[in-house]
Amino acid sequence: MRIASCLLGSALAVALSSGPVVAAEELSGTLKKIKDTGTITLGHRDASIPFSYLGGTSREPIGYSHDLQLKVVEALKQQLGLPELKVRYTLVTSQSRIPLVQNGTVDLECGSTTNNVERQQQVAFSVGIFEVGTRLLTKKTSGIQNFADLKGKNVVTTAGTTSERLLRSMNVEKQMGMSIIAAKDHGESFLMLESGRAAAFMMDDALLYGEMAKARKPDDWAVVGTPQSFEIYACMLRKGDPAFKKAVDDALIATYRSGEINAIYDKWFLQPIPPKGLNLNFPMSDELKKLIEVPTDKSAEEM
Amino acid sequence: MDYNWDWGVFLRSTGIGDEIYLDWFVAGLGWTVAVALAGWIFALLLGSLLGVLRTLPNRWLSGLATAYVELFRNVPLLVQLFIWYFLVPDLLPEPLELWFKQDLSPATSAYLSVVVCLGLFTAARVCEQVRTGIQALPRGQTAAALALGLRTGQIYRQVLLPQAFRIIIPPLTSEFLNIFKNSSVASLIGLMELLAQTKQTAEFSAHLFEAFTLATLIYFTLNMSLMLVMRRIEKKVAVPGLIAGGK
Q1: A6 and A121 share a domain?
Q2: Nearest by CB: A159 against B2, B6, B200
Q3: Are both A59 and A124 inside the same structural domain?
Q4: Are residues A182 and A48 in the same domain?
Q5: Which family does the similarity line name (chain A) (predicted)?
Q6: Which helix (H) or strand (E) holds A39?
Q7: Residue B69 in contact with residue B46, Cβ under 8 Å?
Q8: Could you give the CA distance from residue A135 to residue A137 in angstroms, rounded to a whole number?
Q9: Domain count of the fold of chain A
Q10: Looking at residue A78, which CATH number applies to its domain?
């Protein structure tokens, strides 16, 4: 089966090689692997709403980042002359995503992965696809308006995120006496908040809106506070593969330039989304507008 | 595979105060030991009691202990932990619930939940071993003790249990090591024990393999040393001629 699809892929490649779109130069790295196997493996998440998650009618992932990932696939079909390019999906977790990209299991991961300096030592990043600010989700009646109000309170965040690092630093530097709970995922963090264990939940604002939309009574909750940092999400790919990186970047930038990005944004942030038909009502931030206008593969810290 | 190895990562600053990553592992090891030891003491006491109950002639008491064992041994540990941490506090009377959720620090309430959970879970396993230890003894001993006029309590305290515990030291050792390994479930309710610190280091530094290698070495060394300690104890308390093996 595998061989058959391989042969089919090469046959198609030969058949189409007279087309004008095929690059003349020798392919290498991931592009060569994709061309040779006729398959690209995309990494996705299971619960990063609305970026990359399972919850549509099919078993394939859906989401904002996923739609952008598919734009890249479309562009690769053109560039490599592979209209029948097969897409394989691999579910990644926050722990597995970097090793799976490095060891070749996943060619491209687009989810809610922050581009940061530490990760740049291990993997390469595409141009940014989203920008978030780290803020607070709290009960409207909690009286918490900003980070200063967290003194002496229980605050939850998701383990291993930038928010956790910021929160711990803030606690040490400003001697706020907060008790910080590090929950295993966003769903559990929200459970800690909802069950009264924590007074506030610090996280990337877009994900906070996602959690709020899932709540039993979305109206009880509010996202508050000045962002403590900005983070740029980007797609992850293997390091040292400039040709593939360029292909990914070009595809993303073309989507930005053509304005298609606005439709994709509206679809996931301003309209009802699966599985429950919730509307996140999260208008595009000035930071994201700027990122789309001037695409960059730098992390927010480097800007 | 294109991985950027860097063993110096553990001495690097975490970016929080002046901590280095190694500090996190030390703190994590502290929690792991604290969880496992407290859980073990709980499990050993309760498990011994249940083990004795299972061997009593009273059908109700032994049935109760059997039901306990079946319940706690057949529900996955993680499910039990979530029940103790998320569900049970919500069923408490309100003042107690608020005390548990808000007055206690999050680390303390997570610690209590995981100690109770591991203690109860491991008690079911200790119970089975105590029972088999008692049942491994020749029935004639109980009969002889009864003939001498010993009461049930005396028979257990002076004849059966001292021998049974000696017999089951090897399997008990493995339960003892298991509780250290099982304590890693605490990472899933936000207690920053060894595995949680490992994951956090991996996430923050993007040096996943170094972090997990160090954690593996720590767990391995810890369990090896505990095993050696238990082996010494086994030799020390051995009664010559009582059981074969163990050299």
Answers
A1: yes
A2: B200
A3: yes
A4: no
A5: Belongs to the bacterial solute-binding protein 3 family.
A6: strand A39-44
A7: no
A8: 7
A9: 2
A10: 3.40.190.10
Which residues in chain A are closer than 8 Å to B86, comparing Cβ atoms?
191, 195
pLDDT tens sequence across A55-92: 877 788 999 999 999 999 999 999 999 999 999 999 99
* pLDDT tens digits for range A210-248: 888 878 888 899 999 999 999 999 999 999 999 999 999
* Structure-token match 């980042």, residue found: A65
Considering only the beta carbons, identify the residue of B17, B188, B203 that sits closest to A94: B203
| Peptide linkage before A50 cis (omega within 30 of 0) | yes
Nearest CA in chain A to B12: A118
Domain end residue (candidates: A230, A262, A290):
A230
Say which range, A41-45, B8-12, B15-19, has the weakest mean pLDDT. Answer: B15-19
Residues B2, A102: C-beta atoms closer than 8 Å: yes
Same domain, A186 and A282: no
Q: Of A36, A183, A257, A186, nearest to B186 (Cα)?
A: A183
Query: CA of A159, closest CA in chain B: separation in Å?
Result: 7
Chain B residues near any Cβ of chain A (below 8 Å): 1-4, 6, 14-17, 86, 90, 98, 101-102, 105-107, 109-110, 187-190, 192, 196, 199-200, 202-209
Q: Print the domain residue range for A20.
A: 2-131+232-302
Encode pLDDT of B192-203 as tens digits: 999 999 999 998
Residue B106 and residue A169: Cβ atoms within 8 Å? no
The verdict on a CB contact (< 8 Å) between A102 and B202 is no
CA–centroid distance for B162 within its chain: 22
Co-location of A22 and A106 in the same domain: yes
Question: Is residue A208 located within the same domain as residue A75?
Answer: no
Q: How far is A20 from chain B (nearest CA, A)?
A: 34
- Distance (Å, rounded) from C-alpha B201 to C-alpha B205? 6
Last residue of a domain, one of A212, A230, A248: A230
Tell me the CATH architecture of domain B7-237.
Answer: Orthogonal Bundle (1.10)
Domain-by-domain residue ranges, chain B? Answer: 7-237
A125 and A24, same domain (yes or no): yes
CA distances from A86 to A8, A74, A76, A232, B235 (A): 11, 11, 11, 29, 64
Mutation for B interface: A30, A105, A106, A122, most B CBs within 10 A: A122
User: Rg of the Cα trace of chain B?
Assistant: 22
Is A37 in the same domain as A111? yes
- Which residues of A fall within a CB distance of 8 Å from B187? 159, 184
